[in-house]
Records
---
Amino acid sequence: MEKIALEDRIFNPPADITEQANAKAGIYELAKKDRLGFWDAQAKELVTWFKPYDKVLEDSNAPFFKWFINGKLNVSYNCVDRHAKSNRHNKAAIMYESEIGKKVCLTYGMLSREVNKFANALAGLGVKKGDRVALYMPMIPEAVVAMLACTRIGAPHSLVFGGFSPESLRDRINDCGAKVLITADGNFRRGNPFPLKQNGDKALEDTPTIEKCVVVKNAGNDVAWVEGRDVWYHDVMAAAGNYYEPEAMDSEDVLFILYTSGTTGKPKGVVHSTGGYLVQIQSTLKYVFDIKDEDVYWCTADIGWITGHSYVVYAPLALGATLFMYDGTIDYPDKDRMWDMAERYGVSKFYTAPTAIRTFMKWGTEYPKKHDLSAIKVLGSVGEPINPEAWMWYYEHIGGSKAPIMDTWWQTETGAFMITPLPGITPLKPGTATNPFPGIEVDIIDENGNSADVGYLVIKSAWPAMIRTIFGDPDRYVDQYWKRFGKYYFAGDGAKRDNMGYIWVTGRVDDVLNVSGHRLGTAEVESALVECPEVAESAVIGKKHDIKGESVCAFVILKEGFKGSQELIDKLRKHVGVKIGPIARPDDIIFTAELPKTRSGKIMRRLLRDIAEGRAIGDATTLADPGAMKDIAAQYAGKED
Ligand code: WTA
């Protein structure tokens, strides 16, 4: 028999899922016939509006699209009140476990009280509708409470991933002019407290707009205290009233700002709005993960990323689901920690990233085998293309060869899933995100904008959860996403189409790296490196990595009078870690005398990737100095010895 390549194998939807799935056959045709009618129906079914909208989409000022015009709603009301008022009052909303085994369960009724109280507490600290609130938090229930309390007041939040450095936090606070920072004393990492507040304090040395800092007592580590600025979460909660009237927000009011890396050194504050976002995140989670009341849903993303916003917090709560969250490392105290918790909490829907799957794969099947994972019905993957081997391993060893894998393609900017299978409908192939979600129009186009089987991934029409602008910089929004192909949104990814019409996303085609599913701009790392007095110039590339997908690899030209050494490598790596955060630290630093540049001065990263990944060097004819490549390759070979 001829052997079928992994990526050509087809896995049909399991009959038991198809029979009772939320997404029924015909959903694609329905949405295709009347795209806006589809979103209109989703909006009516899934959102409780204080005032109905007049119109589904306003596109007269493209690319500044508006959805659900004049509708009024409140996200915390949709995520909490409406369930607390229903027979879900005593249903678990959040089940939480910390690394050291602390457990918390909040029912919808309890969550509602916490959110109301914290909204009052924030209001007491002077937070009003429209004010920005920064969060620098571990994965603890208080973080969810804080996010929801912000939405109750109508104060856009800006979460900064806890792994980011004080400088990164400071820049993000200053860019959006946040009034309050919410953080925690610390959280546990491999059994030791990580001093989150200490980092926060450093950031706040230079943030003129911050008036107050609310601190959750979590790890119990010692903290410094600034009288008049710092307040304990438990103190303000104890004094807060039990009810806060949810603000009636306009559908287009800003819900949150989330910074993400782009092609320049300065991260972009992606602005999301209220109505369209709440419609699409719910619709996608309901259909793609087939959410039912009896589910225990676990998305392992950190709340500091878009996946944490949309699919740890807002979508599952808006749907009235039970979510599980864990704050800690995935191999503490042992490499079966995740599966131990999946078994103990009866997780039925599990969503994680390829980089984690490859790590589990490396550790071996003995760890998942120790646990009964039979409750798992649907699996998901996000963050980067999943390689077919990792897909198969996930399918067999976590899903027991019965749970379909939803490979979801989307971005911080899209807010919600865009390309994804549906569990009861789509035949799967390992490694492809398959088809656009109903109501989403995607294409692959060539340099000239014509539809093609290989090329650039674009989104052809507006979608409800789309980015509205870049905070404080609408021109950059237009330039970044809409300039290159006119009326199409350019995602920055390359893609190809197979003989079934499925879309295979092949990765970024711009100067953005994807390290363990985390976005990093090459320019960000380069500007951190050139800050060091020894460095004249640098070029950063993503080098293929078995676990992380890509690792950061930096080519560095030193200033006259400096010599490369292991000591200097350590120093530069450390500097990037301090400047941006540990995820940005280069794995490789190669000192070189030159960089391959075109005659117009643009660095040809493609050629550097060829060197780093050990390939024959590609076409170098456009180089200003064609000899440069030989020297760089020799330098690189020297480093490998
Ligand atoms: C990549 C994360 C292939 C892609 C939600 C995108 C993926 C970037 C997938 C966005 C996937 C995410 N298959 N590539 N299923 N999911 N990506 O903004 O390059 O952190 O542009 O959003 O991750 O990363 P972001």
Note: The longest helix spans residues 108-124.
---
Amino acid sequence: MKEDLIRYAAALPKAELHLHIEGSLEPELMFQLAQRNKVEIPFNSVEEIRAAYSFSNLQEFLDIYYQGMSVLLTEEDFFDLTMAYLNRAAADNVKHVEIFFDPQGHTDRSVPFDTAISGILTALRLSRVQFGITAKLIMCFLRHLPEDAAFETLKQAEPWLDQIVGVGLDSSEVGYPPSNFARVFAAAGKHGLKRVAHAGEEGPPDYVWEALDTLHIDRLDHGNRALEDKKLVERLAAEEMTLTVCPLSNLKLCVVDDVRNHPIKKMLDLGLRATVNSDDPAYFGGYVMDNFEAIIENLDLTREDIKMLASNSFAGSFLEPGEKRAHLAAINLVN
Ligand code: HPA
Ligand code: ZN
């Protein structure tokens, strides 16, 4: 029965809307790039790297995540990283991706903005022919840094704005409320960029309200803690706000203590537009289908729930209405 549902989920076309490309850096590639670029990393083997991936909160993960990025130096590195992710996504029948990148994670260690984005975009341009996947790119601001630094990043992005669909907000959440970034998000909106933000992963429901009311987000990343506030849930449902939920990430970062207690089924039952995503698959134990498998194994999801999750991923994407309709029609053909 569960196997049937997993087979069904695997067969469905899906979109991935919450994926940090730097978080798809597998230990094997990290090791290879460290050698290629002669970068010292504090690990002697792939096994040692994997063994270090045990976290009790978001910050413990972020410390290792920023350290892992240190091997990414050249345009080719960013290209190889992105191609490796697309290859994995294709294996999971992902047909559309909207990926995040963290420019400040690179510019702050003297890797130019243009180097990072060029390598990523070259891979994304190949994506449709090589993997049958369409792709969009979202640039995130690191919220533990000041808003001035986000403005500087937006300035660096200006020559590339026709190839960036939107801006996001990520990194350490508690103590860094969304409203700190209201001005830079408004500036991004004036450029015609979509706006998304991580909120309610560790931070309180108030941060989700702020993301809605001060950042004017088009999509909410995580949003788990919104469930603590009934009025907020009603608003998110009424606005058909898409939540990019990341079950294995939530488990690894101790946002939930057990997948059996993951709220994604509850979100669907409350009428929220939840989707399934991998966040940082190299660090959290899996890609999109690993996340589907985990929730199917541990929650009482129905076939309709699975179909809804796949449909939501296209409905919540930044594809054009006609493209969304085509993907939704393809979902209806799977049985
Ligand atoms: N939360 C916040 N920032 C991040 C994450 C996350 O899950 N992954 C990469 N940056
Ligand atoms: Zn994330």
Note: The chain has a mean pLDDT of 98.
